[in-house]
Amino acid sequence: MRILPAAEHALLVELDDLPQTLGLLASLQAAPIEGVREIVPGARTLLIDFDPFRVSRDELVAQLIARPLDQREAANGALVEIPVHYDGEDLAEVARLLGITAEEVVQRHTGSDWFVAFTGFAPGFAYLSGGDELLRQLPRRASPRTRIPPGAVAVAGGFSGVYPKASPGGWQLLGQTFTPMWDLQREQPALLQPGQRVRFVDAGPRPSNAQELGRQGPVPEMPGDGPALEINKPGLQALLQDLGRPGQAGQGVAASGAMDRGSLRAANRLVGNPAGSACIEIVQGGFEFTSRGDTVVAVTGADGPLDLIASDGRRWPVPRHAPLALGEGDRLLVGEPRAGLRSYVAARGGFARQPVLGSLSFDTLAEVGPAPLRAGDRLTLNSRQDLTPVGSPEAPRSWPTANELVTLDVQLGPRSDWFTPEALALFGSQAWTVTPQSNRIGVRVQGEQPLTRAITAELPSEGTALGAIQVPASGQPVLFLADHPLTGGYPVIACIAPWHLDLAGQLPIGAQVRFHVVAGFAPLHAPSESR
Fold this sequence. Notes:
This protein has helices at residues 18-30, 57-66, 91-98, 102-110, 261-271, 421-429, 501-505; strands at residues 2-7, 10-14, 36-41, 45-50, 79-84, 114-119, 126-130, 145-148, 152-156, 159-162, 167-169, 172-176, 197-202, 228-234, 237-241, 279-283, 287-292, 295-303, 306-309, 315-317, 324-326, 331-334, 339-347, 378-380, 405-412, 432-434, 442-446, 462-463, 468-470, 478-480, 487-488, 492-496, 512-519. By secondary structure, the chain is mostly beta strands. The protein folds into four domains: 2-74, Gyrase A, domain 2; 79-202, Beta Barrel (Cyclophilin), CATH 2.40.100; 228-380, Jelly Rolls; 405-519, Cyclophilin-like (Cyclophilin), CATH 2.40.100.10. It is globular, with a radius of gyration of 25 Å.
């Protein structure tokens, strides 16, 4: 067992193989450690998120070391049968690679049980271990596809799996199922859960009237005829966001939530809402809404113009970071930021939308939650009794502008030792530029010199924490933020310190970033220390 720092309140436990990983996971599920909030299994790791007020890092490490490392080849869970039409694009190539016929590939894939080892990549995507030994030898495709259809059944890297929705991917495609892997109408949206057994069944030729699995339907607005905000212009992107949906890793769903949580809480405080109520998160500007009825709103986050256009046509600037009373027909225009990137609009009472898995946040990677706002949408406000008086105006926080140099505190690990000493020095000394490819999933930065690795082997899929800085083959880092995938296949060199996560969410395109290392890398427990 090797235990590595992964974030301020997260550890990565590295084990020898998948059976050992599943054994430790089963032990932690059967006898949980006080203070452990969530566990994200990987191919041979467990990412453990913990509450430092309930268990210290040292206490957690000691308890993990004391756990027996039982081997667990497979769980004895419930059996799920999945019918498959075996006509995948790679079926013939897989047969050639293995030196067998396509018919034998199908027989081997259906001939033994697979087991849900862990989830990740996308909601409802399960990594299935076990199966036929020959199929487990298949590598990933040399060139990943840009789009794999939903329901595609695939194998690679010792696993099999079913893609829940259309996405890029590099696994070998054997066929397709029309059984939904992810359905919010089910009590448990993810069909496959860790510990279950899976048996693929040959469903014969694909029916001529088969249609692609559709996307999850829109989340309806809850009925109501009270005051509302009517969206006139959504701007570049406008989403409902709250504090997210933690605790859903078992279904392959990340927490998501506001990119700048401090600004979300401040907006709610100004209108008297509970701190975690949903706000409208706006990227850049160009967002406009009309008040239907009497409403109280507040705008926080990025620094920029805010104009009130009264129902009689008069227009004047109004302050951010202060409660604003609007009447019927009044319009509010959120302009282009001078500093920062994201603005937050809170409305007194909160928005009457149906939560998805306990949250109104829209996860842009998983496509879970109320859909992005469009012109014509009407956000009815709740009528509730637990509101506090509106808050006093607050001093805005200072956010970076484009081309400004910003320092982000980071903590090294868990894979800092995969990089050369020169790369680690370069990581903290070089200025990195925020690129236009950045979004809620991750901030992509570009440096003059890429980071080079000391270990070039392929990294098995493992959990990634909020704020993880992953380095793909290009050597240019990606800062994983609110909608990051639960698991990743590239080494994480460091993690953004929690006190700078809001700052990372406000980085505008073109800003310069320098990483300031506040905690070095050292294994918290290494094999040489083992019993």
